[in-house]
Task: inverse folding
């Protein structure tokens, strides 16, 4: 079903994609220094997401965290299902390397909540420009409002998961039921909800002293990626308002979470 939806979406969006693909020879006219700048900015963006996941996983290793994240990110860009498929692959790689499954699940969830909450916070950075009377297109203004609302929802959800065990236990019981139902040939799991609470408490204790580092890494991941986009737009001769680019960037990243086409190809 996902493949059929993907094919239909790509068929509808094909004229727009064709227009984009036809412009690729113009890349040869760009100054190579711009590619070096974009590569450097994207590299720092990836370092930030690895740093965030290292804090959540409570490990000092860079190589295992980086390779698992890179593989999951690449996988999520080429298959329908997006972040869900990539997250499953990353969980499998980390557990195969010897990390406890509940620990990985809780850590990746915490890192995802922090990262997603930071993404939805980005449109709020454009509020000062709007208050100064700079016009904002209607579609981007709606994206800013949507980002603010979802940020509040994500903040409340993250707060409940961190400080209240009932919701986390319910999620654990649901995951445990699914696991036992679809993997009947293996021993049944009976303690997943409590294990998730224990791992959550350990992550909360870890973030207690380093929460500001986690927040900076999450913010750096999105901001350096945004700066790479800004450098790309500047490289082709455009001079847009950075605030409007930030709103468009935030909206596109939110749309990329909807797994209709691989990596949001076309409609993003």
Result:
């Amino acid at each position: 079903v996902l493949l059929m939806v993907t094919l239909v979406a790509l068929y509808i969006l094909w004229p727009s994609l064709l227009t984009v693909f036809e412009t690729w020879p113009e890349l040869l006219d760009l100054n190579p220094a711009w590619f070096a700048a974009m590569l450097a900015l994207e590299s720092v963006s990836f370092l930030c997401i690895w740093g965030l996941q290292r804090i959540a996983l409570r490990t000092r290793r860079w190589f295992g965290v980086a390779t698992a994240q890179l593989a999951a990110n690449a996988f999520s860009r080429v298959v329908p299902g997006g972040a869900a498929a990539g997250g499953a692959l990353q969980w499998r790689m980390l557990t195969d390397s010897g990390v406890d499954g509940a620990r990985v699940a809780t850590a990746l969830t915490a890192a995802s909540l922090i990262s997603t909450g930071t993404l939805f916070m980005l449109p709020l950075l454009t509020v000062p420009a709007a208050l100064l009377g700079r016009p904002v297109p209607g579609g981007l203004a709606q994206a800013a409002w949507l980002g603010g609302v979802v940020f509040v929802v994500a903040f409340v959800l993250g707060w409940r998961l961190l400080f209240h065990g009932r919701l986390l236990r319910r999620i654990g019981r649901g995951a445990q039921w699914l696991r036992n139902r679809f993997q009947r040939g293996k021993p049944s799991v009976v303690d997943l909800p409590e294990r998730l609470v224990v791992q959550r408490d350990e992550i909360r204790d870890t973030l207690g002293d380093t929460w500001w580092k986690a927040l900076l890494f999450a913010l750096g991941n999105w901001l350096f990626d945004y700066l790479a986009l800004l450098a790309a737009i500047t490289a082709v001769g455009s001079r847009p308002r950075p605030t409007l680019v930030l709103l468009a960037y935030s909206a596109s990243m939110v749309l990329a979470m909807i797994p209709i086409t691989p990596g949001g190809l076309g409609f993003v």
The chain has ten helices and no strands. The chain has a mean pLDDT of 80.
